[in-house]
Fold these 4 entries.
Entry 1:
Amino acid sequence: MNHFWVFSGKRIKRSLIIAVALLFAAGIVYAEGKNVQVFFPVDSGPAAIYSVNTDKKQVALTFDISWGEERTGPILDILEQKGIKNVTFFLSSPWAESHPDIVKRIVDAGYEIGSHGHKHENYSGYDEAQIRAQISKADAILEKITGKKPNLIRFPNGDFDKRVLRVADEMGYKTIQWDTDSLDWMNPGTDKIINKVVSKAHPGDIILMHASDSCRQTHEALPQIIDSLKEKGYEFKTVSELISGTETKTKSVE
């Protein structure tokens, strides 16, 4: 026999009020609008940037690369064919060091380059000296290869805590996350990747995609994503362009 919990309207309302109060106390309450989540930081310390507050139809396409050499070329081809000049790539420094020709192509195309750290591990598991060492090593390698010191960082696996954010901030970095995850890393099918991005994209959005070899369908989905967003009136900006002079949306961190 199946059993079901039954709650009255008053009991549900009272439970929701209690839950919201507890979340406010924990500093992790957010207000949710159409495709937008606004999180209220628990303090004024460094915070990761997920998107920006703007009415302008502008989004940032971002691509993480940590390994492989087969997917980046086709993605760069598509961006060139579609005339997309403003894109941000977050490069893992070991990958960049072993693929200088591909990095050169990204630089020559004028795309923005951010750091994706050195070891592809969760930095929240490191002590502060290790966090600093990982950021510094990636910093030195990327500057040597690209000729420019990066000032944006997206940590491996999107993992960080307050210590990681503070160290990155002290080293002159802005930590960049995303509001829309294409889920291309799951290889769910080209149509699902397209629908995920196009349906969720909103003004000021930072969109996460990948150009590593493990993501086998990104280059197949990208042309339609670009065309669909253009049809909706969106412009493509680098992350730096998007966040420059604009109120950013952040999330609280424990």
Entry 2:
Amino acid sequence: MGTTFFRTSDLAKELGVHVNTIRLYEASGFLAPIPRGTNGYRQYSVLHLEQARLAWLALRWPYVGDKHQLVMLVKNAANGDLGMAMEFAYQYLAQVRVERTYAESALEFLERWAAGRTMDASPHPMHIRQAALHLNVSVDMLRNWERNGLLTVPRDPTNHYRLYGGAEFGRLRVIRMLVKCGFSLMAILRMLQQFDSGNTKSLRESLSIPPEENADKFIVATADHWLASLLELEQRAQEIIEQIGRMIEIFPAG
């Protein structure tokens, strides 16, 4: 029985992508060398199909961290080093899990603040440059967060300079931690608006789910539901590992 070959369109249809995506995979070194028939047409094998499936799983947006790690994973698989590809896959899974831990910790920090627990040891009021130094952020960051509605800073009645006190520092620490852990300013604003309205019961959920009645007003990006995205990315990392494992079984000599 002869070997079954696939066309570019066959691989594209199997993965649900454009044929140009398959061509890009070939040009980028994500597939093993592709022989051509006597008619000059490419002859993709099952090996190429599985390599393309791995590239599609690993490289589509979103992903955590530097894409280079995932590119090396796919290229090692294309070069036949599935053991190295598996090592990269587990490194990536660990990275996703670390990001998820950071996000969960930020949400616990938020809930502690929302419960009214003191976040700072009542620092004396500070002007913006002192506040930025105290929080180890830039003045521009503080101004940007205020400009985006995340907080309102009282003014010194004598000179109208901003005065940051204990309440502002507590709120700013929550904002800073959420930003550092990947949550978008839009998601944080949505959560803080709910907090300011007196509803402190489901702040965690409000960071992930835009109100349905206002959904048309929001551009919903990955960072607008970051924790849910991390759960999805962890699942995809597991799928990458499973795909490499399947390739090792199908192509043991690879």
Entry 3:
Amino acid sequence: MTAPKTPIREGRDLLTPRPLSVKRAVNPHASGSAHLKMGRTEILATITLEDKPAPHMRGSKEGWLTAEYAMLPRSTADRQARERNLQNGRRHEIQRLLGRALRSSMDLKFFRNQTLYVDCDVLVADGGTRVASILAGHAALHDFCDHLINTGKLSDWPILHNVGAISVGLVGDEVRVDLDYLEDKVARADLNVVATDSGLLIEVQGGAETGPISMQEYSQLLTTGVSAVQGVMKDMARQLAAVH
């Protein structure tokens, strides 16, 4: 069997993520919002604060954060049908990942008896939509919290950790950061690494695709992923600070 061709990257080396750009306060109706581009992948994230506790948080001293994820019909080459009632397994899995990642970033004691909704909509998909959604969600939460501080609704910054994510994979024998769609299709293994800008690990999702990999390869993927998240978060912090 002929081995799959190794995709050639345009304008970046194997350990460099795709170009990142983020703009916040892009939706005037949302409590916080951000538009994020990572290569050709584009995400719109919005924040809604509801003065109602999640059912399982009634009586708790903390609020709750939940996330929703959707791909717009023409975010891909073929039209994605809108989901009306039942959600597919992939979407449900991604929503749970987003919720866990973004909850870990927040001090929810500031939102007692309230629920934060983070809605992430994929405008254009070219691989890495779940990690890009975590980044967009974090940027939208930053915008939301900045507004609360500037309007005097909060005196303390409620974001405990700056949380980001990146994909990392083995394409042939090469470790590559931030796989696009063509690379993801032929990767021997790929991980989605969620971590903080200080290098603390939150979650790892993924594994081997075409056969087992060694512990050394897995460790290399993980270490590379955490380091790449730190670099991406440094770039994001610079862009968020430049927007007022």
Entry 4:
Amino acid sequence: MGDLHSALVAYGPIAVFLGAAFEGQTAVIAGGFLAHQHLLPLWLSLSCATAGSFLIDQGLFLAGRRYRAARYVVRAAQTPAFAKALEFIERFPISYIFAFRYLFGLRMVSPIAIGVSKIGALRFTLLNLASAALWAAIFTLMGYWFGQTIEATFGRYKGFEHHLTVAAVVLVGVFVVFHIGKCAWPHLRARFSR
């Protein structure tokens, strides 16, 4: 159990950072749960979640901005769906920047689309930072409060929190693998059905 504890303390911040960047809410909730278990400081879980979310979205925005004049991007922007999305983004930029992290399926493409739009880089950076901090706080605190609920419910079992931590880490791992597989399955099926 000491090895698991040491690993969670050493690599937990990295896992929360990468999870916030590439997976989303589940990793951030797990970071809050680890903070409740005193394996990570709460401020560190919040900071790693904010930084991971902010940096990936900032990078995707910059990629959209850098390649918005590329022929394939210009062609994509002329399709009715993309044009409608850009119109919505430019009409409600603050609302969209604060909302896209919560919209299933739009998490990774939205910053690219915003980069293609006319929204200024400084404006996006400031809104992105505020949005990432709010998103991280919501889901980290959900994990933290969930830990309090679990502890209140099962607190009478001595040593139970260690088993619960292991179970939470395993569940998060299974969820991440399932999520990646779910996203990759249509592409793999299309590739092998040709």
